Amino acid sequence: MNSMGYSVHSARPRATAMAGAYEHSQDTTGWGKLSERDTHLNSFPAASVPLQSETSSTRSLVGIDVGGTKCAVSHLRDGKVVEVARFPTARFDNTFRDIVVTVFELLAGKQADFGISCGGPLDAKNGIILCPPNLPESWHGVSICRLLTEQFGGRAHLMNDANACALAEWHFGAGRGTRHMIFLTSGTGMGAGLILNGELYEGATGDAGEIGHVRLRCDGPVGYGKTGSVEGFYSGGGIARRAMTHLSHGGALIPPWYSAQQPLTTQQIAEAAKFGDVIALRIIEEAGTHLGETIAILIDLFNPERIVIGGFFPHCRALLEPTMRIALAREALPNPCAACEILPSQLGEMIGSHGAIAAALYPK
After folding, report:
1. Is the pLDDT of residue 248 over 70?
2. pTM of the model
């Protein structure tokens, strides 16, 4: 029995069922399904600087990626990030039980350095999840680092998911070789991670890069609790909600295989656009415009040499990029815009787990 009253033995059947249940769940993008439990596609070299180059031989590195629709547990094995379990994000006590069971079986008595990647706002310094809008309220105010170290010992580091993924993409993906890079993540929510002058920039409270909270319009869809915000216009959740608004007015949006019993996803909207659905095309093109406006803000403020975009962008880049480029040319300063390369993420669906391991490795 642990400090929260969990018996890891009694919880094991539920964790197994939850991990399996993920195969039938959907997120707001539709591209979040797990295809391989044990993924070795992306190497995580232990000698990358400024990440810690070595860890104690008696400690394991464990990553916990907390998302709006799913949580994942991973570890570093033979220089590679291996994801061992995914399960839907539910009430905190239920989901934490699944995390405890998975980590207990993974560690087999060893201590660990934990990295926790989670959307903000956070109190990263004190290891507290504050009130992320895309997590159930039961997660708000949770001292996740303390709970993990009380249960397993070792150390734990909480990091904004956009920052963690920026570190991962910078060291092991499309951001390699840069000193000034921005990573944009867009799933249930939206945020940015900033690599400036060859270092992760987190800001005074660890909340730098919350681009999803920036207001693009005085009116428009709500995201991050704000009308007309970047998150409301461009996140996977925002695009899906905008599509549902069109559907409620009788628009013929979705492909024939869509089931009304399942939540609408960005993937389905993109598929409908590929099939020539006029309303779907309009929604995707509008999203591309808002993405371009958002990137222009980042270019004007930070003058990066590269912006890497994750989330659903790599899956529907051809649909989003034309209007994105038009808005970017219209809104951004010409010289900084010309100097900035815009690329899709290279780490794919494993980026959250790579980010959580990066948080474990990042110097404390």
Report:
1. no
2. 0.79
